[in-house]
Amino acid sequence: RLREMETSENWEEKEEEFHLKQQRERSKIRIKQGRELPIDIVAKNLLLYQEYEDRKKAAENGYFPDDSTVLGDNIPMEVDEPYKILKNLNSAELKQIRKD
Known about the structure:
It contains four helices and no strands. With 100 residues, it is an all-alpha fold. Helix 1 (2-32) crosses helix 2 (38-60).
């Protein structure tokens, strides 16, 4: 019984991780194609920061990845704080962000 619970928890964690990874990939695609949703605008800086950290870590280990970025070239960071982006959304858009 205990083993089943551990297996179930492990499976749930992997499933959650998979869904999060898929959500990130969908955001990247929408950003690259110029059809961002409000959640993508919020996520953009997180994606760019994670890429920066990954490149920094790789450089520390002597590996220098090519200059391409996960979001493509010339993707600017958002300068507005996330709450400012959310502040201007209507009710339907806020519900969609909560769902995402």
